[in-house]
Amino acid sequence: MGRLHREGGLKPMDAEQLRECAHKMVDFISDYYKNIENFPVLSQVQPGYLRELLPDSAPTHPESFQDVLNDVQAKILPGVTHWQSPDYFAYFPSNSSVAGFLGEMLSAGINMVGFSWITSPAATELEMIVLDWLAKALKLPDEFLSIGPGGGVIQGTASEAVLVVLLAARDKVLRKVGKDAIGKLVVYSSDQTHSALQKACQIGGIHPENHRVLKTDPSTEYALSPESFCEAISHDIASGLIPFFFCATVGTTSSTAVDPLLALGEITKSNGMWFHVDAAYAGSACICPEFRHYIDGVKEADSFNMNAHKWLLTNFDCSALWVKDRSALIQSLSTNPEFLKNKASQGNMVVDYKDWQIPLGRRFRSLKLWMVLRLYGLENLQAYIRNHIELAKMFEELVKQDPRFEVAAPRKFSLVCLRLLPPQNNEDCANKLNHDLLESVNSTGKIFISHTVLSSKYVLRFAVGAPLTEERHIVAAWKVLQEEASALLRIL
Amino acid sequence: MGRLHREGGLKPMDAEQLRECAHKMVDFISDYYKNIENFPVLSQVQPGYLRELLPDSAPTHPESFQDVLNDVQAKILPGVTHWQSPDYFAYFPSNSSVAGFLGEMLSAGINMVGFSWITSPAATELEMIVLDWLAKALKLPDEFLSIGPGGGVIQGTASEAVLVVLLAARDKVLRKVGKDAIGKLVVYSSDQTHSALQKACQIGGIHPENHRVLKTDPSTEYALSPESFCEAISHDIASGLIPFFFCATVGTTSSTAVDPLLALGEITKSNGMWFHVDAAYAGSACICPEFRHYIDGVKEADSFNMNAHKWLLTNFDCSALWVKDRSALIQSLSTNPEFLKNKASQGNMVVDYKDWQIPLGRRFRSLKLWMVLRLYGLENLQAYIRNHIELAKMFEELVKQDPRFEVAAPRKFSLVCLRLLPPQNNEDCANKLNHDLLESVNSTGKIFISHTVLSSKYVLRFAVGAPLTEERHIVAAWKVLQEEASALLRIL
């Protein structure tokens, strides 16, 4: 395989050169998956490792594709943390799949920039259709479907999803009370809500002292209590402030807690607030009838978000957001420069997704979600989710059988929170012990797990959800945890 | 090729199934490029066309890959506007290339989520290195390199780039004057600046009446005059307002005007303002020594942005942003939740790009830029840019030779602005005439061009820059324009 610069000048998009190189890349990537268990899951390189290995400026003349592939193997892959490894149990999963990968390839091949309908009608229309499909699979209320004043849109991440709805809500209330009242607007969430909300507040200019971070505890399994929500709102109204936005979570990052949507939603409604539901991780599980009840109450929500790129086999990025009133989004995010005007847009005949998101340009991301839904079908996707939850249950049982450990929060989906108990119930050293356990487990390279803090306790998070994970990986992972725990306890 | 669901249950990431299907997809995409000239460039479908063709819910059972590919061919491609067609001359280009495509494939294959260094050190470090390479190729000041307090980062789009620096600048000044002064902050730009700045102001809560959109005209070739900038600032200061952000453009969207960076930059500096340079399109040309002078004065800038995904053969999305003071970005955009804490981050040993951007998650986008720079080399990339500029010059000459047309703004890079002159110099009908010409040209499906308005005149934009465009396409495009113009003039 030679240089891409052949006789007769550069041919940057020659179909036959593309065919030749891309076939080679397919084999490279397939081999990567075949051998993925051989890599340390968490990259073991030191900060700055790559600068030692690469030149400090771009080459003047072309290099060969084989040279680049060799460098990927020798220099890049050692610095990769392998999210697709079956031994990856950190954070939440970020699924790759054959179907998702094929969709990404096709999207990169067509390489259109779908900001307006006209720039590729198929991109906008497939997105509307596929998000309707997914909304129906999740049994979302009809108001979230694209046939009415609402609809779905693919955002890059849940952070962008919560940001755009926060902006829509902010501007909706400021249109009523005047923009100088921004310092009076209050946002509510629990202390388990993802930091994406805090970031959205920072971006949108909500004063940090007006973000109510309401405390949760084990008595509600870290779910927000409607009573404390109500109290906080009353207190703020009495102080002359304006409650305008609430973000509930179904499946919190730390422990997959589920806020009671129905009760909380009714409170937001009676106070005229925007109610956003973040189900970034756990939303995928709600395609199974037996888990759907976790989003009962979503009918009260103004917006709902789940990440198909987490646990629904759709390669990153694909964060599905539905809103009941798309005009609120559009009023906040639209601009209408002359150079983008066209008959379809000016005639209000179409959706222009540029006005539903932060960036102008957008990729053809619906292709991968469409391929996932078609190539697997809903029944298989449900089985896929159920299998992970069964594996997590199995892991939970293993933890329970070892008296040195405790399950640190109730397991609802595929995340198990666990903790190594300190010897002689000495809680003073418990956090350090678990921190050390995390470090030693992850340094083995055999598995990768992450942590959180719940009620001041340092807790290990074991999240099942990589597409290649099987029972044997769970068993082996537990063995690693046990062995590292034994080693730590020995030297105490 | 059968269903992905085989005997023995779903295998969503089976290496051999991936190999089989992805080889087939490579051939599909290569054939697409082989036949790309046979499609209408601008999709000719009607709004809502796709809903007629697809079922209204996701399938319960898996479908075959061949069925999906057949649908892509029969139902999706007719709704695609072919940005990679050699006959695409609308907006600005959005380059695809063999190298860029390979990088996208690899990124989708690894499918990691690189929010923090630890989540894949190679993703963060390659991005720092490759943006240093590109900064050097552009001869950006050393303060933009990652060795000091500055550095580069890949954003999705220029919209996100201007937003994050606007937020950094906003918070920097609000830390001094207090956050209740947000209503006094003033942003400056010319009337040629991209609408992304207006959107950033809306998001960041800058009052719309405090966005000074300074008029330009043909006397400066639509560049902003330092005098009017100075005047506006003085006037605002006298009114008790606080000038804090200025966005200059190198290569405006409407006509590729170039704001005089040096003079404007000195004014921002003496007024303590943040100076952002948006060279989204024309930045790529500045890797050629003969065009580098257009960004002379960038040394005054606090931030500089160019889109490698526009005209530098890197598949969408890859918007390169450099800042001199990364701590300003980080102060605005960082959050530090417990569940993301890790030794490398807490020890300040690494860059965590999550704090340089809006979303949390991020793809491995540096791979494609790295592949483009290595597989083509700077000399070929320069030749690639020069070739497009030569083709644009050729087109400009063709326009000049036809007395029915005029070149409507000076050509600097690869965009030609042109206008069909109205018969009998009747300016009243000139705008409608050119609007009708645009519609009729684009309805042929033979080429796709776009438009703008300059000094109240409706102007056609002909932007050369697709990787497959050759001289013969320019000649044929001009013939289409001439023929449609003749037809229109006949019926007047």
From TrEMBL, chains A, B:
Reported cofactor(s): pyridoxal 5'-phosphate
Keyword Lyase (UniProt): yes
UniProt KW keywords: Decarboxylase, Lyase, Pyridoxal phosphate
Alphabetized GO MF terms: L-tryptophan decarboxylase activity
Stored Pfam families: Pyridoxal_deC (PF00282)
Location of N6-(pyridoxal phosphate)lysine modifications: K310
InterPro entries: Aromatic_deC (IPR010977), PyrdxlP-dep_de-COase (IPR002129), PyrdxlP-dep_Trfase (IPR015424), PyrdxlP-dep_Trfase_major (IPR015421), PyrdxlP-dep_Trfase_small (IPR015422), Pyridoxal-P_BS (IPR021115)
Top-level lineage group: Eukaryota
Family: Belongs to the group II decarboxylase family.
Protein name per its UniProtKB record: Tyrosine decarboxylase 1
